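Researcher: Let's continue the batch. This sequence belongs to PXPV repeat-containing protein, and it's 94 residues. Same format as the previous ones, please.
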Amino acid sequence: MKKTLAALVAVTTIAGSLAVAPAAKAGDGGAVAAGVAGGLIGGALLGGAIAGARPAPVYVAPAPVYVEEAPCRWVRERFWDGYGWRFRRVQVCD
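Model: Same format as before. Here are the structure tokens for PXPV repeat-containing protein:
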């Protein structure tokens, strides 16, 4: 219903401005410019009112995802072999 009413107001505004426009003459002393400015301001106000009628977007957080870790993992371990430090991979299970 709101969209229909907004469309009706917009059509009425445009029809009214077209009906008044031919009555203006070139020597009106700025009346045409005032009419154009008034039409632009009125259109901005009407457009703002129509745009403000929509509800704001709603953010919905995604559901949490739980990942079960593997019971064992590989770890680098440093060890002394009698000649120097070396590395080896060792499986550690919790």
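Researcher: Any comment?
Model: The chain is about 45% helix and 20% strand.
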